[in-house]
Specification:
- It is a single chain.
- By secondary structure, the chain is α/β, with parallel strands linked by helices.
- The chain has one domain (5-310): Divalent-metal-dependent TIM barrel enzymes (TIM Barrel, Alpha-Beta Barrel).
- 42% of the residues lie in helices and 15% in strands.
- The protein has 10 helices and 10 strands.
- α5 links the parallel β4 and β5.
- α8 (218-232) runs parallel beside α10.
Length: 315
């Protein structure tokens, strides 16, 4: 009988740039009872650069890093559940750019095989990419996702497709759903990656308003979205489920490690203010209840992206 298993994102246990290595993060996750981990490409790239710099090519360095991470996970009895986030792809207009990103995806699939990861997570196109390079047309999006999905299917890998709250053209689960259905692949090839933060923030939140972080009509809007989810989304179409909350963001980004006043407000909130469920101000438990009401029984992963992650202290 399938059961819910709890994981955490590797980049939610300290930033690699602050000296937190992926091997140490695996150990910490295991010590605190997590059964699995999402592997962020930034953590894998950092391990590849710091430990395997002598190897001549990026694929060789990444492959060696992936093997090292897999070995440590095996020692700890940890499962590795996903490699993420693959982006800058879904709505690409230029055929040469599509081919280049598919070539990069093949490298990621190789890493998935080494890591024994079953989910390859892709996000919709995001700031700061040039919006003109990406089409909002569902037919274009679906055609690109079908090509990626067929490559994943040949490798026995599932795609988890996510709409971040600041997505350039796709920022809701319903828009992702339309693309997945149009791609016309089996339900176990291209699936949803659902996240309580992205759904609650986009539908109900006001990211820069500390006094009213949930819009006046936000809860009614969220309830309609979740009712639609309960009526139309089958649990077998969900790759995995991410849990996170958030506090309100500072519009002036004072003290934030990566200050960028041009970025969308939801991105500012996501980068700097995401906390564990119940530690923030968003209606994330309502989203979680809706997903579990579907009968979902798969991996649930915690995602925390906060200024604390930049602190160098090992604890």
């Amino acid at each position: 009988m399938p059961r819910i298993q709890i994981a955490i994102a590797s980049n939610s246990l300290g930033k690699s740039a602050a000296g937190h290595t992926i091997l140490r993060k695996l150990e910490a996750a295991s010590q605190h009872g997590f059964e699995g981990m999402e592997i962020s490409i930034e953590c894998l790239e950092a391990h590849a650069t710091s430990v395997f710099a002598a190897l001549p090519t990026r694929p060789a360095r990444l492959s060696a890093a992936a093997a090292d991470v897999r070995q440590r996970a095996d020692t700890l009895g940890m499962q590795l559940i996903a490699l993420n986030p693959f982006g800058a792809y879904d709505g690409l207009r230029d055929a040469a750019e599509v081919d280049a990103r598919l070539e990069e995806a093949e490298l990621w699939f190789d890493l998935c095989a080494i890591l024994r990861v079953g989910i390859f997570q892709i996000t919709s196109a995001l700031y700061p990419l040039d919006a003109a390079r990406f089409s909002p047309d569902v037919a274009t999006l679906a055609a690109n996702m079908r090509r990626l999905g067929l490559l994943a299917q040949a490798r026995g890998i599932r795609l988890g497709y996510e709409a971040p709250a600041w997505g350039m053209h796709l920022d809701t689960w319903q828009q992702i759903d339309a693309v997945i259905r149009r791609a016309d692949l089996p339900v176990d090839v291209v699936q949803h990656c659902l996240d309580t933060f992205h759904i609650a923030a986009r539908v109900a939140g006001s990211p820069l308003d500390a006094q009213q972080p949930v819009r006046a009509a936000g809860m009614a809007d969220l309830q309609r979205s979740l009712d639609e989810m309960r009526a139309s989304l089958a649990p077998e179409r969900i790759a995995y489920f991410q849990l996170s909350d958030a506090t309100a963001a500072d519009p002036d980004q004072r003290g934030y490690p990566r200050r960028d006043l041009a970025q969308p407000p939801y991105m500012t909130q996501s980068r700097n203010c995401r906390v564990f469920p119940g530690e923030g101000v968003l209606p994330v438990f309502e989203v979680a209840k809706a997903v579990f009401d579907l009968g979902f029984k798969g991996w649930v992963s915690m995602e925390v992206f906060h200024t604390d992650m930049w602190e160098e202290r090992p604890s």
